[in-house]
């Protein structure tokens, strides 16, 4: 059994009782926007870089605060690989706009679980439990 863990950072963006999720080109499931850290990057540095690449947003570094860590099977991997995503809230200027590998951005709530990766479903469950989404 493979115990590989993909280390990712994600941004929780809320609006009208929904959370912003993205879908990559050639994928069907939605996930929390963000990505993998590069060598030597802090959570904040990786999050800022990935969100600028994926959603063309510049995060206010001083506003970044931790929400939770979520682990589940990686989408599209058949070998037991897992994803660990450390999710954060942050303020930003602008409107989230899909860029780079992102094909689509959708505002999702707990009624949309069938459209989401297993890790994203765990994030949605906590957001709903905490009263942040429908």
TrEMBL record:
Its EC number is 3.6.1.55. It catalyses: 8-oxo-GTP + H2O = 8-oxo-GMP + diphosphate + H(+); 8-oxo-dGTP + H2O = 8-oxo-dGMP + diphosphate + H(+). GO terms for molecular function: 8-oxo-7,8-dihydrodeoxyguanosine triphosphate pyrophosphatase activity; 8-oxo-7,8-dihydroguanosine triphosphate pyrophosphatase activity; 8-oxo-dGDP phosphatase activity; 8-oxo-GDP phosphatase activity; metal ion binding. It comes from the Bacteria. SUPFAM superfamilies: Nudix (SSF55811). Gene3D superfamilies: Nucleoside Triphosphate Pyrophosphohydrolase. This is 8-oxo-dGTP diphosphatase. It comes from Providencia heimbachae ATCC 35613.
